[in-house]
Amino acid sequence: MKLFLISDNIDTYTGMRLAGVEGVVVHERQELLDALDAVFADKEIGILLLTEKFSRDFPEDINQLKLDRRLPLIVEIPDRHGTGRKPNFITDYVNEAIGLKL
């Protein structure tokens, strides 16, 4: 299985290419959807890396993909500007999911 990156900036793309991960840089919604279609057509791709900006800009599209697809595994990664998430987002997520405060 291969990893594939869809990035919104050239810096993240370049860093991942240096690590041996193939990918593309896109900026518009239609470019993102076209890249996603190409990834889903390639059965060798097991993990899709997306920069977090796409989830902020197109939350409906990304959330629907996560619900509808089992493969590839979709993983959001921070870009060169860091993460846009709160410092304790995992704890908050678990608290919300199980209804208990940890």
TrEMBL record:
Tell me the keywords, alphabetical order. Ion transport, Transport
What GO molecular function annotation could you give as one example from this UniProt entry?
proton-transporting ATPase activity, rotational mechanism
Where exactly are the transmembrane stretches of this chain?
A: none
Coiled coil ranges: none
* Gene3D superfamilies in the record: ATPase, V1 complex, subunit F
Give the record's family classification: Belongs to the V-ATPase F subunit family.
Report what the protein is called: V/A-type H+-transporting ATPase subunit F
